[in-house]
Write a structure and sequence with these properties.
The chain is rod-shaped. The protein has about 60 residues and is of the alpha+beta class. The protein has a two-stranded antiparallel ribbon. Strands 3-4 form a two-stranded antiparallel ribbon.
Length: about 60
């Protein structure tokens, strides 16, 4: 069984874990009303999805 001879330093350990960060959420603008929304989801401002009216808007 392989056993390390030296302790891994905090810097080396953190360099190895540099890709374990959380990515931010992606936002796009709605083509109809211009509000920001998450991609592939219904716009909560106008109720539009993929060019079709899905939800009844409060207007």
């Amino acid at each position: 069984m392989a056993v390390p001879k030296k302790k891994t330093s905090k810097a080396k350990k953190n360099m190895r874990r540099s890709h374990h960060k959380i990515a931010g959420t992606t936002l796009v603008t709605c083509e109809k009303c211009g509000a920001t929304k998450r991609p592939h989801r219904v716009c909560l401002e106008c109720g539009d999805y993929n060019g079709k009216q899905v939800l009844n808007s409060a207007e």
